[in-house]
Amino acid sequence: MTTADTNMTPTTRPESVAGILNRARFSLDGDEVSVRDVVEAMGRASFAPLLMLPAMIVASPASGIPGLSSICGISIALIAFQMIARRDHVWLPDWIMRRHAPRDRIRKALDWLCPPALFLDRVTRQRVCMLVEPPLLIVPQIICLLAGAMMPMLELVPFTSSLLGFAVAVMAVAMVTRDGLLVLLGLSTIVGAFALGQYLLA
């Protein structure tokens, strides 16, 4: 997250979730879409949106693409770490930036996410802002870091990666919209994901 992002004031107008998805559509050129295409379309300083997108994709039917949950999880962990470190721009290693997926699968995932995004834009508002402002902002950032790091290990455990992706997406939406109430929802989802993972591995 940029300095401007982390220092948002109550009068700053948050970005809409649907608007972020529309920005992602600019990367959908050619038969394949690379991580680099998405990062460049979103802007390297858009930390919270760049955190939200891979999380929402993992929570969508596109999570069925082999290896996608792992790539998204590693990206989430790296972006969250850089948010904690208060970097000005997102950096991802070249081997991740070169990863790509079929354009049609990603387009269908974004289409699938549009109705939930519009719903979130209707129901979210600035509330419990202390949870998405320093010093408490580090809590959802650390949770996103840990959840992203766990995704590659849980990819073969049914539903857990998608649940973790949903939790990270909720946390990222909380940061984008300054709705701290969503942080609590994200925490509940994290607890549910780990409980399900333990049950399935037992």
Overview of this protein structure:
- The chain is mostly helical and 202 residues long.
- It has one domain.
- 65% of the residues lie in helices and 3% in strands.
- The chain contains ten helices and two strands.
- A two-stranded antiparallel sheet has the order 1-2.
- The longest helix has 21 residues, at 103-123.
- It is globular, with a radius of gyration of 16 Å.
- Mean pLDDT is 87; it is low at 1-12.
Short description:
The chain is mainly alpha-helical and 202 residues long. Helices cover 65% and strands 3% of the residues. A two-stranded antiparallel sheet has the order 1-2.
Mean pLDDT reading: 87
Sum up the overall morphology in one term. Answer: globular
Intertermini distance: 38 Å
Biggest sheet details:
2 strands, antiparallel
Beta-strand content = under 5%
**Topology order in helix (H) and strand (E) letters:** HHEHHHHEHHHH
| Total count of domains | 1
What is the number of E strands?
Answer: 2
CA radius of gyration: 16 Å
